[in-house]
Amino acid sequence: MKIAYFDTIAGISGDMTLGAFVSAGVPFDALCHELKKLDLPGYELSARHVTRSGIVATKIDVTVSEQPRYHRHLKDINQLIENSRLSDTVQATAKKIFFEVAVAEAAVHHSTLEKIHFHEVGAIDSLVDIVGTAICLEMLGVEKIFTSPVRLGNGGFVNTQHGTMPIPTPATVEILKGYPTVLTEIPYELTTPTGAAIIKALSEGVLSLERLTIHAIGYGSGTRDIQETPNLLRIFVGELDPGYGSDELVTIETNIDDMNPEILPHVVEKLLAAGAQDAYLVPVIMKKGRPGFLFSTLVERSRVDGILAVLFRETTTLGVRMHAVERRKLARGQKQVLSSLGTVMVKAVVNDGRERLVPEFEECKRLATEKNLPLIEVYRILEKELGS
């Protein structure tokens, strides 16, 4: 799966995002060509190399021929995008980003989505930044976005159309509410509302880079040369290893139609005790219409003899079928967590860099007995608290 990982060294803004994508391999001329499909006159886009702390990065500049104040509503922004010749994917991505900004602005100003006006974000440069980001993602074929915790400036002030605002601005904080952030002591606006909206709208969350095969790296520069940190957004583009483990097991099968069904659960327990990875029964119709069961056991090759001994001793089978199978599996393990019912061991499953916690039956049964609760209620409580 192809992903883009946003490393917010000095936060994120729209122009830094464009610069990082161009640095990572998006042809600048092709980006400009696609942006013309927006039918947005009155600006010129340029790219140049700058150096931040010895690192060469791409700085994108949007030069507006005149600086009108566009007070657009969200519906105006959406109409502008929908009337363009941009692809459906680019349009949907751009509208998704603008929606996050609108929701935050409405919350900050105690307004509604219908009434909220776009000031800076409705201006030409921010339209270019947001639509340009959507174009870059499509050009690179990025399927998902992940990020580092987002770094925020703190302690300074910034002038906006609404007046002087504290850093981080209320809109930025509102957009990133619930997303992992790092509040630095740098008194500059590291992360802008546009940058925050890009992450909120598109990111799958924070990801460890240990399973990423990096194919391209891009550095996008902010305007200011900051002493405390390189004023850069770094984007890694690469393939995310899904993290599936693999092993080879043996499936052992036999059909049985002449045993007392009450004995069969005992056999399953014996197979699991002998080291089977899994053992189960499937009802089948045998020859002459007799009802029976398919016994299926999954086992490591080194334990095959022990499983055969159980089957031949505990069942009426005269023979079995065996074949090797390849198994793909998610990374999993056990983890001790603190719940409202007390400490509990749960299964931790990792997929696409995200961990999922799952209650185990035996632990739920133990808690149900200790707390004198219905087992189903214990499951409901733990599933809600674990988010599973």
What does this structure look like?
The chain is built from eleven helices and 18 strands. With 388 residues, it is of the alpha+beta class. The chain folds into three domains: 239 residues, no CATH class; 85 residues, Alpha-Beta Plaits (2-Layer Sandwich), CATH 3.30.70.1380; 56 residues, no CATH class. The strands form six sheets. It has a five-stranded mixed beta sheet with strand order 9-4-1-11-10. A four-stranded antiparallel beta sheet has the order 13-14-12-15, with helices on one face. Strand 6 and strand 7 form a beta hairpin. Helix 10 crosses helix 11. The longest helix is centred in the N-terminal third of the chain and has 21 residues. The two termini are 24 Å apart.
Q: What would the keywords be for this entry?
A:
single chain; 388 residues; alpha+beta; Alpha-Beta Plaits; 5-stranded mixed β-sheet; 4-stranded antiparallel β-sheet; elongated
In short:
By secondary structure, this protein is an alpha+beta fold. The protein has helices at residues 14-23, 28-35, 74-82, 88-108, 124-140, 170-175, 193-202, 264-273, 304-314, 361-371, 375-386, and strands at residues 2-7, 43-52, 55-64, 144-147, 150-152, 157-160, 163-166, 181-183, 203-206, 212-221, 232-240, 245-256, 278-285, 291-299, 321-329, 331-339, 342-351, 354-359.
How are the SSEs placed, and which strands pair?
Blueprint: E1 2-7, H1 14-23, H2 28-35, E2 43-52, E3 55-64, H3 74-82, H4 88-108, H5 124-140, E4 144-147, E5 150-152, E6 157-160, E7 163-166, H6 170-175, E8 181-183, H7 193-202, E9 203-206, E10 212-221, E11 232-240, E12 245-256, H8 264-273, E13 278-285, E14 291-299, H9 304-314, E15 321-329, E16 331-339, E17 342-351, E18 354-359, H10 361-371, H11 375-386
Helix pairs in contact: 1-5, 3-4, 4-5, 4-7, 10-11
